[in-house]
Amino acid sequence: MALSGELGKLGFTPDSIETKATLNFDRTDAGWTITTIHLDVAAKIPKAERVAFEKAAEAAKKGCPIPRLLNATITMSARLVQPQPPNSIAFVMMPQSHTFWGFGFFVR
Prior knowledge:
Elements: H1 2-9, E1 16-28, E2 31-44, H2 50-63, H3 66-70, E3 73-81, E4 89-95, E5 101-107
Parallel strand pairs: 2-3
Antiparallel strand pairs: 1-2, 4-5
Helix pairs in contact: 1-2
C-alpha cells in the first residue's frame, strides 16, 4: 500500500504490484524473534520510468513502520515489469497424455 501511495504522488497508477516477503527468525532470550525481512517487489506500471519507480520504492521502504515495530532490518529488491502489449501471442505446450504433447497458441 505504501508503494502504491508513493507512485500516486508521482502520478503513476500501477496495474499490479506483487510482493514476496521472506522473514528470518532467531531464537532470543525473549523467544522467537523476526530479525530481518526481505521484500521482493515486482510492479507493472504503464509509462513508468525506472528511476521514478526506484525513488518511490525507496521512499515506501524508508517510511514502512513494520521494521520499527518489530525492531527488524528490512531489505528490498524492486523491479519494474513491463506490461505485455495487447494482442500479443503466447506459445504454450500442454500435456495431453503420458506420451503426447499438444501445442497451442492464444492471443491476449
